[in-house]
Amino acid sequence: MKHGLLIYGHISKEADWNILKERIDFWKSKKLEDGSSFFVTVSMSFEKNLLDNSFISQIDSEIDGTFNISLESIYKKNNIQTVQQCIIKGLKNCKEAGMMKTFVINYKFSVRDIDTVFRHNKLACVTLYGNSSHILKTLNPSFMFGKTKTLQRVWENIPILQSLKLEENTFRAFANVVGNSLSLMKVISPEDIGLRKFIN
Q1: Strand-strand pairing, 68-72 and 140-147
Q2: Domain extent listing, the chain
Q3: What is the domain class of 2-197 according to CATH?
Q4: What is the distance between the alpha carbons of residues 108 and 58, in angstroms, rounded to a whole number?
Q5: Radius of gyration, alpha carbons of the chain
Q6: Which of 98, 111, 137, 195 is the most exposed place for a label (fewest CB within 10 A)?
C-alpha cells in the first residue's frame, strides 16, 4: 500500500535544489512500520531570478519520469498564499494518484518518527507551542497528516487575513474545518516526532 507524501517549500538559491533532491531520495526509500511506502510529489515556489536561467530546465531533466512535480512560480517566501498554492497543487496530485491519506512536509525539515502520527490516524499538524496552540491560535505548516480530501478542505478554504502571520493563518485554516478547540485533530509537538529544521 502507498500513502501520499507531499514535499513543498521555497527554493531561494540553486544549492537548495541539492537539499531537496536528498529529501526526495530519502522519502522515496522510506517505509512505514507496516511496510507501506510513499507516492512522493513535490510542489515548490521559486525566487524569480531562478526562473530566468536554465535552472528550471535542469530540474525538469533531473526529475522527468521519476516524480510528479509541480513547479509553482510564486515569489513570496513564507507567504500564506504561496504555501496554500503549493500545498493545494500537491494534494491534487496525491488525490489524482488515488492516495487516501497524505503526509505533508516542508523540505527544510526532517522528521524521525512519522509512524506515531500514522498510528493515531487523525488529522494532524505540528505546533511550536504545545498545549497552548489553541490559546495562541497558531499551528505550523511544516508537518501535517490526514485524509487527502480533508487536507484539501483545510487548505482550499482558508479564511486568510493578510495582517496575520503564517502560523496564525494556518490555525485559521484548520479551525475552519475542525473548530477552534482543535479537539477533532491531533496537535503534535516537534519533540513527539523528532521534527527538526536543518536549513534556514
Answers
A1: unpaired
A2: 2-197
A3: alpha beta
A4: 21
A5: 16
A6: 98
What one-character-per-residue DSSP string does 12-37 give? -SHHHHHHHHHHHHHHHH---TTS-E
Instruction: Tell me the CA distances in angstroms from 67 to 61, 90, 95, 155, 170, one per residue in order.
Output: 11, 12, 15, 23, 27
Q: Convert the pLDDT of each residue in 118-159 to its tens digit.
A: 998 999 999 987 666 666 789 999 999 999 999 999 999 888
Q: How far apart are alpha carbons 67 and 168 in whole angstroms?
A: 32
Residues 6+ apart with CB under 8 A from 150: 123, 177
| Cα 103 to chain centroid, rounded | 7
pTM of the predicted structure, to 2 decimals: 0.88
Whether the CB-CB separation of 154 and 176 falls below 8 Å is answered with yes
- Residues whose CB falls within 8 Å of the CB of residue 192, separated by 6 or more in sequence, listed in order: 113, 116
β-bridge pairing 68-72 and 37-46? parallel
CA distance 56 to 36: 32
Q: 186 burial class (0-12, 13-18, 19+ CB within 10 angstroms)?
A: middle
